Amino acid sequence: MPINPNLKLAENILDLSKVEQAPTRKGYGEGLLEAGEKNEKVVALCADLTGSTMMDLFAKKFPARFIEMGVAEQNLAAIASGLANYGKIPFISSYAMFSPGRNWEQIRTTICYNNVPVKIAGSHAGVSVGPDGATHQAIEDIAITRVIPNMTVIAPCDTHEAKKATLAAVEFDGPVYLRFTREKTPVMTTPETPFEIGKAEIFWDSEGSPSPAGSGRLRPDVAV
Predict the structure, then answer these.
(1) What pLDDT shows up at residue 71?
(2) Do residues 58 and 40 touch, judged by C-beta distance below 8 A?
(3) Does domain 20-187 fall into CATH 3.30.360.10?
(4) Which range is the signal sequence, renumbered to this chain (predicted)?
(5) Could you say which of 73, 140, 161, 183 is catalytic?
(6) Residue among 9, 21, 7, 30 nearest 162 (CA)
(7) pLDDT at 208
(8) Long-range contacts: 1-4, Cβ < 8 Å, 24+?
């Protein structure tokens, strides 16, 4: 089963005993820090979870461009919308259960209705939230964000793609929801693996040779 060589994937990705493991939120933190270094319009707002969402890297480097909102997710979204209306590129971070979960209406009305470039980072998404339990398991977040007009939803496959997605979100004109994990997941890609918002990549082809996505045929290929 040949793996597409053009994607420059990590070694041993089919052997979970050997593949590197890292949480996607780590890539987000690194990507946000790099984005802040490259673009002074990038600002960050958090709902009392800077360490858990890896936003602390940005906060320590750029304290004047960081706002700690406390446990106030509705304000988190609304203030970010205002900043975006005045030319900033805000990233807002919390657990996905609370943002976009708790502040969905503010995201819908103040961010997406106005089509402003706020980037919503929801960490600890899905069921793998460790000791945080069922109250923190965001299993509806993709559904509730995909239905909002103007919203783009990105669920990176690993920590490298999370970093690339964060950097790509800065350049993307419009609201973006970035979905990250708490627990470590297999690192399937490398820093050299291509990434483009809205484009799938074929990892390998069940018929024996890699082929581009969008060929018009339904086959059990693996894509990200």
Answers:
(1) 95
(2) no
(3) no
(4) none
(5) 73
(6) 30
(7) 57
(8) 1/204, 1/206, 1/208, 2/204, 2/205, 2/208, 2/209, 2/210, 3/203, 3/204, 3/210, 4/201, 4/202, 4/203, 4/204, 4/205, 4/210
The token pair that represents 171 in the structure block: 């350049």
Residue 209 has what pLDDT? 54
Would you tell me how many other CB atoms lie within 10 Å of the CB of residue 113?
14
Q: Are 92 and 118 in contact (CB under 8 A)?
A: yes
Mean pLDDT, 10 residues at a time, over the chain (224 residues)?
Answer: 82 85 97 98 97 97 98 98 98 97 98 98 90 88 97 96 98 97 93 93 70 38 43
SS3 for 46-91 is ECCCCCCCCCHHHHHHCHHHEEECCCCHHHHHHHHHHHHHCCCEEE
Q: For the chain, which residues make up each domain, given as ranges?
A: 1-18+192-224, 20-187
**Is 73 part of the annotated catalytic residue set?**
yes
Amino acid (1-letter code) at residue 44: A
Q: What angle do CA 121, 24, 183 make, to 5 degrees?
A: 110
- Nearest to residue 26, comparing CAs of 134, 187, 174? 187
Distance CA 126, CA 134 (A): 10
The Cα-based distances of 97 to 102, 141, 165 in angstroms read 7, 7, 21
CA 32, 34, 39, 40 torsion: positive or negative? positive
Q: What is the pLDDT of residue 1?
A: 52
